[in-house]
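Schema walk-through. Below, the input block comes first and the output block second. Nothing else is stored per chain. Lengths vary across the set, and this one has 70 residues.
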Amino acid sequence: MTLVDEALDIIRRGTDEILLEDTLRAKLARGRPLRVKAGFDPTAPDLHLGHTVLINKLRQFQTSATRSCS
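--- output ---
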């Protein structure tokens, strides 16, 4: 199994669908860090339990050698 396949396995966990998976695979194959945007402020005081799903997904991207930003 290649590093790209391992990263995709991590990213697929808990997801229903990955849009443009071929594009994601190609970007991971470049070997450069990706920028992943969540669209919310993780330091905001109005976070709730539902945000933990996205925070955990950002962590999975981070552990698969990408750069997450919010």
